[in-house]
Design goal:
alpha+beta; 3-stranded antiparallel beta sheet; 2 domains; PH-domain like; 9 strands; 3 helices
Amino acid sequence: MSGSEMVTLRPRRIRVVCWASAVALVVTFSLLATGLQGPTGNGYGTFQRGDGFAMIGLGLIGAVAILLFTRPRVQADAWGIRVRNIIGSYELPWEVVRGVRFDRGAPWASVELHDDDLLPVVALQAADKDRAVEGVRALRRLHQAHQSTPVGP
């Protein structure tokens, strides 16, 4: 294993689902906005042009919120591991990492630290099956390579 190996992992299924959902949400809100303009005839009021723009704006805000779930990523190299989750990022050298875990039934992998903390790695999701398992194995190889490297002169 070369010292310059870089591993970059992102979830696959959640990105597809999120992009499809975001597009569907914007299209739905846009269709609702155009369909509700003008008098409704039932005496309860009307939707104006500004209301339609507000509906489209709500659809866009919802789509951006959904797309936050495409943010997770993990990068690792000989130095350490960088984890970006939906909210929050961590950059850790391998010295503070005890191991990489993917417990049975867990929705995603986690990094176990020497102080007994568990850091979730949302980029490695159980829904990605074999791809997630290969990602965990790659992270474990990098961690193991760092542990076997002699320290000091």
